[in-house]
Amino acid sequence: MSKFKDVLDSTKIDEAVIDFVRTFLSVSIAVALGLGIPILSIDGDGYKAVVSAGLASGLQVIMTYLDPSNDRYGLTKK
Length: 78
Known about the structure:
This protein is mainly alpha-helical. It has one domain. It has helices spanning 2-10, 13-34, 44-66. α2 packs antiparallel against α3.
């Protein structure tokens, strides 16, 4: 367990995961409401659209995390 804690302490991956989840949820809810999909009784096609939109929105967080010129999450050029 200490190796896991060391990784969390030395990197900002936990902040990136939180940003990804926040973005995923907010965009997924916005797409569901925008398409008129009832959130509590979602069917297969609506589920696919909502999850796809959420994953697509989370890509910007991953790109920011992996960009060495952006030091938001601690990854910088060497």
